Amino acid sequence: MDIFDKINELYDKRRQVELGGGDERIDKQHAKGKMTARERIEYLLDDGSFVELNPFIEHRSSDFGMDSSIAKGEGVVTGYGKINGKAIYLFAQDFTVYGGALGEMHGKKIAAVMDLAAKNGVPFIGLNDSGGARIQEGVSSLDGYGQVFYRNSIYSGVIPQISVIMGPSAGGAVYSPAITDFVIMVEETSQMFITGPKVIETVTGEKISAEDLGGAQIHNAKSGNAHIKTKNEEEALDTVRELLTYLPANNQEKPTVEATDKVTDNLCPELTEIVPFDSTKPYDVKKVIEQVVDKNSFFEIHKAFAKNIVVGFGRISGETVGLVCNQPKYLAGGLDIDSSDKAARFIRFCDAFNIPLITFEDVTGFFPGVKQEHGGIIRHGAKILYAYSEATVPKITVITRKAFGGAYVALNSKSIGADLVYAWPNAEIAVMGPEGAANIIFAKEIAESANPEVTRQEKIETYREKFANPYVAAGLGMVDDVIDPRETRIKLIQSLEMLSNKQEDRPKKKHGNIPL
What angle do CA 97, 103, 108 make, to 5 degrees? Predict the structure, then answer.
């Protein structure tokens, strides 16, 4: 045997690895409308950029017939490549090999590539398609999960981590995606749950399908465990490519400033029509966002969850910004438990990765009710206060209409560290709305009046003129400037430029204790 025989042997072994579970299982994967692990990698990465790592790793288990069972590639493909010309590391679980089940060496293979991603300061992507732990390996498979969870946690805030659920993700498998920054799910073919439908039926008697228990719609709209829902795998992978354009490679860098068409007129005359002067009338804050960010640059996160607040990325003169905006179309834009969680987590991501925060505020307050109070609105609402206070990136607030009570303080007010706060001339900034305030302050006068309703309306206007306007807050330095709504984009461009070199330290500590 000469060197060329050995080289041919190498290529034969590599072809066996690349075949995964074999043609029959690959056909089954395709029949479900799913790509194989390698097809997904090929679609996601720039052409010819993928470099595979550890293709020949194999398990060392001998129990339950495993000694005679060969798992080529250990049920997961790992490596690095480029997306939009920028380096990334990734893994893709191979459902054709043991259903993508995670064992000891499977876990170590993922852990090794995660370490490389962190050392090199580049984003990490997980393409998840797994039946869970490989039970034949017992506790070793649980240790494999632990190796991955640990790295998800310690690299959080160091490199961006994105999880794409492209099949089942059951049991312990769900906790790795849950720790990562963004979770993308595919309709009909992806599910996440701790205990599956059969176990639930056995234990509780409840009957439910896998899709209704943990499908893409459930986790995007109800549980909030997923951030983005796509119609198919191609759209999911396209979404990853787009999302990465807004993010830096790591926490030591800033996002790339994209080249944009030069805009000669940054005025937004339509804003005066989009936002009704009457503060009780709803409007769609997404139309406001579209006016102030670069054309077609808004990328929404958590679109279907807690719709009373809108969060996402956009660009202003090519610079990535994070947007946190009350949505008057839902719950009058009030803050509840879910919207507090949604906003706080997004704020902390932006702060970790040097993305300036812009807040559009139109809030009546924290949402009232026994269910909210008993559900912990105090604890959940405090997360927003904590997240904004902790953040050291440039922080800009625009008050478009209402800013009442504790919600005004929580949504990036000057008192908790906002760099700049702008208000439109119709803004109302007060402890509460004029109607409620008048009923309390002037209760005796209204009750003793010959015409209580007329007196009540007079007192409402008195309170509105005295307190529910931006000039009192501006006079106290709580608002930096009252601006023409049409100049909002101009002011944001100027503010981002002014704050581009912002540096701010916090007291030295191991970490804070956010009210989880």
Answer: 110
Q: Please write the tens of the pLDDT for every residue from 13-50.
A: 778 777 766 777 788 888 888 999 999 999 999 999 99
Q: What are the start-end ranges of the E strands in 357-490?
A: 357-363, 395-404, 420-423, 428-430, 481-482
CB proximity list for 34: less than 8 A, separation 6 or greater: 95, 129, 166, 167, 189, 233
Taking CA 73 as the corner, what is the angle to CA 69 and CA 78, rounded to the nearest 5 degrees? 155
Q: Is 22 designated active site?
A: no
Provide CB contacts within 8 A for 190, sequence distance 6+.
Answer: 165, 166, 167, 168, 169, 215, 216
CA–CA distance, 62 with 50 (Å, rounded to integer) = 33
Out of 79, 167, 171, 196, the active site residue is: 171
Is residue 97 within 8 A of residue 17, CB to CB? The reply is no
Following CA atoms 249, 255, 260, 263 in sequence, which dihedral angle do they give, to the nearest 10 degrees? Answer: 170
Is 103 considered catalytic here?
A: no
Residue 376: both structure tokens together: 């912990």
Q: Which of 255, 252, 515 is nearest to 387 (CA)?
A: 515
Catalytic residue among 407, 418, 438, 468: 407
- The model's pLDDT over 317-372, given as tens digits with 9 standing for 90+, comes to 999 999 999 999 999 999 999 999 999 999 999 999 999 999 999 999 998 889 99
- 406 belongs to the catalytic site: yes
The label of the residue with tokens 């997961």 reads: 76
Rg (CA), the chain: 27
Taking the model in full, what pTM does it have?
Answer: 0.93
Among the options 318, 406, 417, 436, which is catalytic? 406
